[in-house]
Amino acid sequence: MDPSRRARTALVGEAAAALRRALPRPPRWLLASRFGADFLGDAARRAPPHEVTLPDGAGRLLARAIELPRAPLLALDYEATGPAPLPPSFGEALPLLVGGKLGCRGALHLLSGQGLAGFGAAPAITAVGDWLRFGDDDPLRWLDAAALGARFPELRGGANGRDLAARSGGAAVLARHGAARRVVAATRRGPSGPTDAELAALSRLGAEIVVEGSAAELVAARHQGLRFVALALVLDDVAQSPLADPSALADAAATLLPRVARLLPELIAALESDDGAGAAESR
């Protein structure tokens, strides 16, 4: 077996063990956010992060246990700070893989996007209902399946369609906060933004928004058996700004993030309530 594969499988377990020592009772819901966690307010800012340095210069994990009203949350981020960073999709998936080892129940994935033709007004918060994935950078390729637990993740209904449609609690919260629309997100990775031709092609293929990054988090969440809810902050759209203005994008994010901070505690509480109702029904 490839020794790097063995080492990376061990890395997942060791990182989870280190966080379990620092957080004996980690929250059951994980936040994987491209926007960090400071937007959640004073509770997030006052909690010092627990830092786990990954071996062989691979970077570090930063974890914060955040007490939101009725909704404890674990914010977990990978930072490629070392001289030998992890492969991109594996680095994106690592918080979800570690969260699964910690016994988390589910994950909230927060990412930024651009609206394609016909999306409508931006900025907006929307739920991701399905994905168009481009590229073959599989985050599980770097792991020893026998050691981690071989499971081919079923991705049909893998985003909000399965997690929010079966019961109404989470869907009702999203509707109340204007985020109920479920879109098809096309994923791509830079280093530069998409061309006009790429945006037109993605729209013809059925995408409604395009996000920078991969859907590695979805694959990892399904592999670990985590519920997965993806929310996209659509910061602009192709009709508004053919050339992205970083200042305008930052202003759009500043407008949307306070809304997300109000939405998340209600959403987690509703998902917890749904899980409790489902458990009662199964008995």
Question: Topology of this protein?
Answer:
Blueprint: H1 3-22, E1 29-33, H2 42-46, E2 50-53, E3 60-68, E4 71-79, H3 88-102, E5 106-115, E6 124-133, H4 145-148, H5 160-165, H6 169-176, E7 182-188, H7 196-204, E8 209-212, H8 216-224, E9 227-237, H9 246-282
Parallel strand pairs: 1-4, 1-5, 5-9, 6-7, 7-8
Antiparallel strand pairs: 2-3, 3-4, 5-8, 6-9
Summarize this structure briefly:
The chain has 283 residues and is an alpha/beta fold.
Tell me the total number of β-strands: 9
**Could you say which structural class the secondary elements and strand pairing correspond to?**
alpha/beta
CATH topology group:
Rossmann fold
- The CATH homology group name: Nucleoside phosphorylase domain
Number of helices: 9
The helix/strand order is HEHEEEHEEHHHEHEHEH
Strand percentage lies at 15-25%
The profile of the biggest β sheet is: 5 strands, mixed, barrel
Radius of gyration (Å): 18 Å
Percent of residues in helices: 25-40%
- Strand arrangement across the biggest beta sheet: 5-8-7-6-9
The tally of structural domains comes to 1
